[in-house]
């Protein structure tokens, strides 16, 4: 009876992890995380504000960019409470319900971002391969329907995570590998059979991120084929230049995600520090860098941002 009570007591909380070997968190690390969040939220909010207020930016490419900025904003806000709690206040405890809610939002926004990157690849393919029909194919109603499907898709596939985890009892040491909650991290702490969770998580990784990245790759194969058929070298470079920002966003998103997924599933002897660093790159770098990458590469957007801040 005592053992049961202890199990229930232990399962009431999870303990979040900061940087291994840094129990006393240096001030500069806390300040760095604060700056990352401030610039991520400011950058994505600026992108949303400028696209909303400038009618000349109400084009498919910029509407998809605003969807990406909104998703990055949601991803940043989802991780703020626990990461800043750990590094600013050394608050490492998180309740099960709060943890499950956080991982639901994190995974939802991650899947939504993957879908939006696929839509942006489709946008570039249509713009380069069929420019004369670009406006008639990507109409505003169609774009909003595509965005709604992305949101519903991400929410629908992430909804089972809290319910799949809530049925477990957590009788092991409830220390998570990160300073936020992820499904693949939490399920390892259960003292029950996690086969269903493992299979469902693997299925989503392959069917969602795997298929999205495959279709993105195929889109760029067709884009490259179209571009290489263009006689003019200048036009070829101009067409490819419109894809640079999107390619950077793809690399920033998929590279750390694939690495972290492999470590959680296969890297049992991997360094805890590597897991934590990859985890931060996975969730913090895309929302920070995407506004910078797109602002630098888009002359029109950059000019509007400069005008807003100069005024």
What does this structure look like?
It is a single chain. The chain has 311 residues and is mainly alpha-helical. Helix content is 77%, strand content 2%. It has 13 helices and two strands, in the order αβααβαααααααααα. Strands 1-2 form a two-stranded antiparallel ribbon. The longest helix has 34 residues, at 96-129. The chain is globular and about 65 Å long.
Please outline the helices and strands.
Elements: H1 2-10, E1 13-15, H2 27-53, H3 60-89, E2 93-95, H4 96-129, H5 134-137, H6 140-158, H7 160-166, H8 183-186, H9 195-228, H10 233-241, H11 244-266, H12 272-297, H13 299-310
Antiparallel strand pairs: 1-2
Helix pairs in contact: 2-3, 2-12, 2-13, 3-4, 3-12, 4-6, 4-7, 4-9, 4-11, 11-12, 12-13
Strand order of the largest sheet: 1-2
Shape: globular
| β-strand number | 2
Tell me the series of helices and strands, N- to C-terminal. Answer: HEHHEHHHHHHHHHH
Average pLDDT, all residues: 87
The parts where pLDDT drops under 50 for at least 5 residues are 1-10
Helix content: over 70%
Q: So how many helices?
A: 13
Helix-strand makeup class: mainly alpha
Give the N-terminus to C-terminus distance in angstroms.
69 Å
Strand content: under 5%
- Radius of gyration equals 21 Å
Biggest sheet overview: 2 strands, antiparallel
Quick description:
With 311 residues, this protein is mostly helical. The chain has helices at 2-10, 27-53, 60-89, 96-129, 134-137, 140-158, 160-166, 183-186, 195-228, 233-241, 244-266, 272-297, 299-310; strands at residues 13-15, 93-95. The protein has a two-stranded antiparallel sheet with strand order 1-2.
